[in-house]
Amino acid sequence: MSSQHQPRCKTASVASHVHASTASIFHRPSLVAAAISCMLSAPVLAQQIALADTAAMAETVVTANRIEQPLSDLVADMSIVDRETIETSGAAGVADVLSRLPGIEMVRNGGPGAATSVYLRGAETRFTAVYIDGVRVDSQSTGGASWQNIPLDSIERIEVLRGPAAAVYGSDAIGGVVQIFTKRGEGKPKPYIGLGWGSRGTVTAQTGISGGLNGWDYSLGASHASSNGFNAKTSAGFNPDADGYRNNAFNARIGYQISPNQRVEATALESYINSGYDALVSKSAPMADDRSINKMQTLGLSWQAKWSDVYSTRLQYTQSRDYYATKPSVYETDTRLHNYLFQNEWKLGASTLTAALERREDSLVNGNIDRMRSQNALALGYGLRAGKHTLQLNARHDRDSEFGGNTTGSAAYGYEFMPNWRATASAGTAFRAPTLYQRFSMYGDSSLQPEKGRNVELGLKWGKGSNSFSATVYRNNLSNLINYVGNTGACPGNVGQFGGCYANVANARYEGITLAATTRVGVVNLQGSVDFQNPRDTDKDLQLARRSKRHASLSADTLVAGWRLGAQMQTSGKRFDDAANKFELGGYTLWHLTAQKELTRNWSLVARLNNLTDKRYELARTYATEGRSGYVGVKWMAN
């Protein structure tokens, strides 16, 4: 699924459910009017708003229902990012790339390599299921993927599914799914090498080769990135040194076409990060060079077979590891996941039936914790594309070795009620099992129950030729939300002696509206999105920490004398750093510039200037963010 001929970035948005009380988010009509004006006054000026062209809409994706489907057939709310977009984005990590998509915010405790969170539609980072080449990555310590571990240079393509997908993927997919793909080789051997230099002693290097011969295809890559960094922790009592990082990564993808209808494939990825952070200065460790060590490993083996024109199967085994340690202070946590999948697909006329058997095994070693659990699942799906109608139904039952059964379901419908106009509606349930750390650490409670979500959406999308506009409204209610609480009656037994525990004590609601569009004005391509949301703790009627009520992104690019020049704006409203809403984080607006040129047939150059105005802002209280920075890179690739 190479992205060489894909458009730079596409958003296929579904609309969400317009609930009566959702309107309370938008009690200031002027803000909505400004947002719509920002999106080029759609739908009145809809002809000026652009989307992917007809060829792009024929592109296939796999994340929505775990099978290949034309992007134009989906009811789901999806975005796709290709390699060209990543290379010209100027982003420091995969989370930075995602934060420029509709409905996504990012928080990082310092510079690249530091702990990173991604909020999809306002949902906690643990509520997004993350896959790399079909391999689930997760931490049974912190919950959710360790975003800082994912090497950006290894990524060829990203598919982002917004909205719950537990009926397809099981536990974790409450806010959505992010699937990352490395490059698949084809044709004659294509070696490449790249070097880059940037501010604060930043150095990058990449090399690899891809190709195919006699039924085999292969892609191998290695990368290095390092930086002197900047002081991550700005408050008194912490080491004022620069907190740099080193990242080495390797990825491989090898496939063999046994016959026209059968293929086997193996994928592997490994990433190692050594990054600085600042712990509180103490007598025993005055001005210590505190370091965090992150390791991520993935391995996937799959066999795909098409037995007839209507029936095909996929058998897959995957495993992943998420390892984190600190020094000189001693802390270590090690998560390992094993997954077994047997996927079946039947195409019957305009209908598609799917059935999957899946087993997931999680284990955690952390201090005195050495635990394992498993989940067995049966998932069923039915899709129909008939004329103006699109229907997708999914149901799944997961049986956990400790909690028993969880059944989830989803239903989505799309209707082309006029030429170029499409309305969609969907509803779904989801859950996340508590982590092994939340249950068995010194702060744990073994009686914790899964967190559960109920989501509804409604939407509207218009598209004609290269023009489109989309609006998505959603409401996702969460129950049994797990929070860390003080030593209250919620803590069982002797757990409270450590100052608190994890408990199912909260309920939350993620609701909002997303507007997205792209257009071409003369020789300039424009695309942007704006989000109005209200992520709240509904028990206390407080805004959830580190999430804003408004955020937006706008980008422009054009071709001038062989140079592709780009500019991007990101803006976010104020947030609160804590659950009690006592510590406010101010809003911010960032500007970035990029330039790219093919110097010769084999050589290309990319230049970036991030945070053009040297804006000072915080994503997490007392943690610094990078000021103005530049980068220049060159790349050679065989044709």
List the topology elements.
Elements: E1 9-12, H1 29-38, H2 54-57, E2 60-61, E3 69-70, E4 77-82, H3 83-89, H4 94-98, E5 104-108, E6 116-120, E7 128-132, E8 135-137, E9 157-162, H5 166-169, E10 176-181, E11 190-198, E12 202-213, E13 216-230, E14 243-259, E15 262-276, E16 291-306, E17 311-327, E18 331-348, E19 351-366, E20 369-386, E21 389-400, E22 404-418, E23 421-432, H6 436-440, E24 451-464, E25 467-486, E26 500-521, E27 524-533, E28 536-537, E29 542-543, E30 550-560, E31 563-572, E32 575-576, E33 584-585, E34 588-598, E35 603-610, E36 629-637
Parallel strand pairs: 7-10
Antiparallel strand pairs: 1-4, 2-3, 4-9, 5-6, 7-8, 9-10, 11-12, 11-36, 12-13, 13-14, 14-15, 15-16, 16-17, 17-18, 18-19, 19-20, 20-21, 21-22, 22-23, 23-24, 24-25, 25-26, 26-27, 26-28, 27-30, 28-29, 30-31, 31-34, 32-33, 34-35, 35-36
